[in-house]
Amino acid sequence: MGDLVWILISAMIVNNFTLAYFLGLCPFMGVSGRVETALRMGMANIFVLVLTSLCAWFLNNFVLEYAPYLRVISFIVVIASLVQIVEIAIKKFSPTLFQQLGISLPLITTNCAILGLAIFQTNREYGFFQGLFFAVGAGLGLTLALVLMASIREDSERANVPNLARGTALVMIIAGSLSLAFMGFAGLGSAS
Amino acid sequence: MTEPQFLVRATPHLSGPESTPKIMWTVVFSLIPVVAVSFWFFGPSALLIQAAAVLGALIPEHYTGHKGSLRDGSAVITGVLLGLTLPPGMPLWMAFLGGFFGVAFGKLIFGGLGQNVFNPALLGRAFLQAAFPVAITTWPSQTGSWWSLRGDNFAWPLMSPQVVDGSTGATPLGLFKFEKQSTEFLDLLLGTTSGSVGETSGLVILACGLFLALRNYLNWRIPASICATVFSFSGILWLFDSEAFASPFFMLFSGGLMLGAFYMATDMVTSPTTHKGCWIFGAGIGFLVVIIRTWGGLPEGVMYAILFMNAFVPFINRKTQPRVFGQAPPEKRGLPFMKKGGQA
To answer: What are the CB-based long-range contacts (under 8 Å, 24+) for A124-128?
Structure first.
């Protein structure tokens, strides 16, 4: 149990996908304008990451044993089509949720964090529950990074930012500073 | 034309005796005892490091800041505070670079004083820690001639600084973390240990911080909350196993905790605007400090804890807005997709 909790915390804070591995930067830069949107994006991310983890576990254990060289392609194809199917199902069963998620659900599928999660999980040989906790931790970490970034950006919209740094440049600098702040957690847990 | 009978102006109509330059310069003057103590312990190196950091902080402020922003003293504070957190034997050009980076990328790029998110001095130090991890963790011991430099201060940029054998020691936190060796409490209080230029003497920093708190130039809730959290959290761990974990008094007075709690975390720009927010902010810092110090890869975590919580400040401000008098309490909110109706 402690092992699972540690995987979750590690994926969320210490090895944060966005701020330590620099994965999933597209939503981090693109959808972090408003806190509400960022939170919704984070939720959608958690959802897709959990699905990914389940898919990767299933593929690894039952399919890829016979064709290991197809790993990356099968991950991409299976995860993308599964998310599409789930989206259709959500549209049918819960239009409200569908409206909330909007375009973000299909977009996340092509995110590098998704493929990254599947590949990390395979390389580290995580079991079913380990993979699940890893996915939830990674999703929570992405959500944390997105919400922090969005709240800082909302505040700095009112700031008197010089013209040369307005827009993406400032976002990059904030991202770098956030990443510096997360560096303090490097090696957490390895000492003891 | 008759003279106007009364002046028509936007509020506020009454102005207090305080002004930004006055507060900033008071903070600078309150640091004089800390700087003096650092000079006493580390000799000329201490002053050289701080001069380099201040110079590095002043240059971008002078060339790209708003007109007259050099005179409000905020860049001087950044430089002095950065200098106080650096090891005395560090090459001067690195201290200069840290000050430059902190002010240029931590403050001016956000639009200058009052608009930055991260504490500029700490951002400069975090940058130095990432760029020069060896130089920033080489601690000279307090031995040898007082007049001699405590390291290769005048190393040229991009050259590796010379290290004199036997002249380096570990900080109390490093000693405890890697060799399980505790330090005398009196040494921690007075500052006769190795460490950064201005962080060693807990007692002097405490006195200077209390002076500022009494004048209401810093929100006392932040240091109170940090110290209380660190004391209680590390106290619980210590009661649990007094061999493996440091005592709460050691935690409070070692490393940069006092300097961080009184001078870094209380930066008016990068701390929350509400009192409730300040309690949360301080508790978060204290909690993270103990976590990083106890289980982290680095012996010291005050800088990262404060930077991390700085990032949370806009979010804390948003969540701790007091209710406007006379308004109905806000509706209970759930996760976005639990809300009925939804918002497009």
So the answer is: A126/A7, A126/A57, A127/A57, A128/A57
